[in-house]
Structure to design on (373 residues):
């Protein structure tokens, strides 16, 4: 459509410009003729009068090439107009405008699509396979960075705290990423309420509720030291422990026993032999209580009781470890843990009587038959 319109406009301009240029040439020729006539005014009278000059209009009419308003372009062959040709006029202008607007809209859509593709490529330049590969590599790198150098060995400790100022304080071992539970018991195994706590070092400590006896400690550094001072109810002497952080060993639970009855002490069932508190550091009693008997201990055969009851012999002393209550014979000393386990120190006895929540249990111990640990 556009080439046809352009051709028609060019033809029209040529048709208008040609008569003007020809008229200008005619005027110049007429001026030249007048000068020539003035120069020949003295010519003989016998000569015939010159013919009247022609005007530019006459020249346009007399010239068959200029008779058409299109000028020389009027003689060009013109093909007949078909139905597909767009006639000049108001309708043609509207259709051209609509076609131009449609083409502009199409170009705008193409530009927007190209801009979207460029933005998407800039924000997410990787292909799906490359993204999955990147995530796999990131997973491997993060696992390598977050995996600890070593996994600490967990332990559960039962230790009797000494109130003697000349003794060294107990040491609680912790590790990053692990919580240590610290409990305080009296000599009968009953909880000893904590009045207040103060500490120093890079540790997060969750203090117990009012009347509680459990403290939770979490280290916030891989290698740190500190200490904790605890004031107990009805006890004048403060209890101090040392806090250390490492990566080799961690105390999951630390049961600290105070070598005297507390405000919530349990009343013994019988007083035969007396109830003796274990003061200071009795390694045998605490070792049996936390499940680590001394090397020289020999395990004895126990029948009539479940597997929770065990008996050991160290020199001439027998140690009975059981969650039940020993009724007979009388014992020399006894310790208990927070989970209800008891250790009794007594002389050799072939038969013992235990109480399992009120039910009598009779057990036999073979003193002359031993097994290796």
């Amino acid at each position: 459509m556009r080439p046809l319109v352009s051709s028609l406009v060019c033809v029209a301009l040529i048709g208008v410009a040609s008569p003007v240029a020809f008229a200008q040439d005619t005027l110049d020729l007429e001026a030249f003729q007048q000068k020539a006539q003035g120069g020949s005014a003295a010519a003989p009278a016998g000569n015939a009068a010159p013919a009247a000059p022609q005007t530019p209009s006459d020249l346009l009419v007399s010239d068959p090439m200029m008779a058409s308003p299109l000028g020389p372009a009027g003689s060009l062959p013109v093909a007949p107009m078909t139905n597909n040709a767009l006639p000049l006029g108001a309708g043609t202008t509207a259709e051209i405008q609509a076609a131009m607007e449609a083409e502009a809209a199409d170009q705008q859509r193409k530009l927007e699509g190209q801009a979207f593709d460029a933005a998407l490529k800039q924000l997410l330049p990787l292909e799906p396979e490359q993204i999955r590969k990147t995530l796999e590599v990131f997973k491997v790198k993060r696992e390598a960075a977050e995996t600890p150098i070593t996994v600490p060995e967990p332990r559960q400790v039962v230790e009797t705290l000494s109130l003697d100022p000349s003794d060294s304080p107990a040491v609680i071992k912790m590790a990053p990423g692990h919580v240590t539970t610290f409990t305080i018991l009296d000599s009968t195994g009953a909880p000893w309420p904590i009045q207040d706590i103060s500490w120093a070092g890079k540790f997060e400590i969750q203090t117990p509720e009012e009347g509680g006896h459990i403290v939770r400690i979490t280290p916030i550094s891989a290698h740190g030291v500190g200490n904790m001072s605890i004031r107990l109810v009805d006890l004048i002497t403060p209890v101090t422990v040392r806090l250390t952080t490492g990566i080799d060993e961690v105390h999951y639970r630390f049961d600290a026993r105070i070598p005297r009855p507390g405000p919530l002490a349990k009343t013994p069932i019988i007083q035969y032999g007396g109830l003796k508190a274990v003061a200071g550091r009795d390694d045998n009693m605490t070792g049996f209580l936390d499940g680590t008997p001394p090397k020289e201990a020999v395990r004895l055969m126990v029948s009539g009781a479940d597997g929770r009851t065990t008996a050991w012999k160290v020199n001439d002393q027998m140690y009975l470890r059981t969650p039940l209550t020993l009724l007979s014979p009388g014992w020399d000393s006894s310790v208990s843990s927070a989970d209800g386990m008891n250790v009794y120190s007594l002389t050799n006895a072939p038969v013992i009587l235990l109480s399992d929540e009120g039910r009598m249990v009779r057990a036999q111990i073979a003193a002359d038959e031993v097994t290796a640990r």
User: Anything to note?
Assistant: Residues 86 and 117 are 39 Å apart (CA to CA).
